[in-house]
Every structure is written in structure tokens, then in C-alpha cells.
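Example for tutorial group B:
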């Protein structure tokens, strides 16, 4: 049941990262929270399967650290979208 805490915290961190990474208009607002929640939940799950109990600080710390992978994911997605849009505009001669 505690994995829900990981999902909620991961989604909140992912949402915050969504607003910090530039070009947020090139991606949906749900992408950041989904990536953050998935990362936090996955790490929590793997630690639980590895036998790390919730009475240790590691699952709780991982819930705060794992969603930080959202930053590079969103940065790459935005960059690819901006470059793709520019390439498509050039192909259509809209520049």
C-alpha cells in the first residue's frame, strides 16, 4: 500500500519538473507526472522485491530521487519536438 505514496510523490515531482524544463508547450502536461510516478513506483517496486523493507530509509529516499529522471526525459522530448517542427516547417516552406 505504501507504493501509492511513491506514485503520488513521483507525480508531484514530475509535475514540478514539467514547469521548470523549457518548451513546455511542446509536450502534454501529463507527461511529466506520468514519468515521475513511473520512475518512483518502479524503484520502490524493485527495492521491495530486493528485500529492502519500508522501515529503512532507502525506499523513501528513492521516492524523492528517482523522479529526477523526468528532467532529461522532458528535455529530450522537447528538443526533438522543436527540431522536428522546424524541419517540417522547412519542408513545407513555411519559414
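The residue assignment follows.
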Amino acid at each position: 500500500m505504501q507504493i501509492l505514496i511513491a506514485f503520488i510523490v513521483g507525480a508531484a515531482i514530475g509535475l514540478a519538473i514539467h514547469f521548470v524544463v523549457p518548451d513546455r508547450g511542446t509536450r502534454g502536461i501529463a507527461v511529466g507526472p506520468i514519468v515521475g510516478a513511473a520512475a518512483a513506483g518502479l524503484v520502490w517496486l524493485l527495492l521491495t522485491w530486493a528485500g529492502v523493507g519500508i522501515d529503512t530509509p532507502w525506499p523513501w529516499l528513492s521516492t524523492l530521487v528517482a523522479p529526477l529522471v523526468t528532467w532529461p526525459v522532458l528535455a529530450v522530448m522537447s528538443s526533438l519536438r522543436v527540431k522536428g517542427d522546424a524541419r517540417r516547417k522547412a519542408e513545407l516552406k513555411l519559414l
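The mean pLDDT is 95. Compare this with the pattern of hydrophobic and polar residues in the output above.
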